[in-house]
Specification:
Mean pLDDT: 88
Radius of gyration: 26 Å
Oligomer: single chain
Number of strands: 12
Low-confidence stretches: none
Order of helices and strands: EEEEEEEEEEEE
Shape: elongated
Strand content: 35-45%
Distance between the termini: 63 Å
Strand order of the largest sheet: 2-1-3-4
Structural class: mainly beta
Helix content: under 10%
Number of helices: 0
Length: 191
């Protein structure tokens, strides 16, 4: 009802909508808060769930006379997707005013993986942030040629694999210094 205080809750989760007929097949969540007065908002965070999965949650309340309520409204939520793994075998080839980057697709990435490359002349970063960085590349291709650069300047590239949901891998940092063709042959750097 709309008055009184429950003495306990039982909240459960399942990967299908919860009903009276499957209630006993669902999984009990532990560590629920002590019931508050009717009408009070309470929160609970379910932990240990699988990434990128839809879960359904329902609650039953018990009163001081051991009366158990009907199943509450059923809510659902999808857990966040795990980010892809880091790019592999990153290399940088330097030439006149150009740095060409190549890398291998992460072993733990889905087919919709994309790549972002941040460029800086001061340092790389392992966490995706545009602070003191320039977004040099954002595409699905595991290679990039950065041109119109200044020769004899070291450029730091932070390579990230990511999904459109905003889940980024840790960055792989690689650096290269473009050189005039007359002063040296191409330089290969690996990360």
């Amino acid at each position: 009802g709309a008055t009184g205080t429950a003495t306990s809750y039982q909240m459960r989760w399942y990967v299908l909508p919860i009903t009276d007929s499957n209630w006993n097949n669902t999984f009990v969540l532990t560590g629920l808060p002590v019931p508050s007065v009717s009408g009070t908002t309470q929160t609970y965070t379910a932990i240990g769930l699988t990434a990128n999965t839809t879960y359904y949650f329902a609650l039953k309340a018990t009163d001081e006379n051991s009366n158990v309520s009907a199943i509450s409204n059923i809510i659902s939520a999808k857990t966040k997707r795990q980010p892809p793994g880091q790019v592999n075998s990153a290399t940088a080839n330097s030439s006149d005013k150009t740095v060409s980057l190549n890398w291998s697709i992460p072993t733990s990435a889905d087919s919709d993986v994309k790549y972002a490359i941040l460029r800086s002349t001061s340092s790389g970063t392992s966490a995706y942030t545009l602070t003191n960085q320039t977004l040099a590349h954002d595409n699905t291709t595991p290679s990039f040629s950065d041109s119109n650069l200044t020769n004899d300047t070291t450029y730091y590239y932070s390579l990230f694999a990511y999904y459109d949901s905003g889940d980024y891998s840790p960055g792989v940092i690689i650096s290269a210094k473009p050189v005039a063709l007359s002063s040296a042959s191409p330089v290969v750097t690996t990360g």
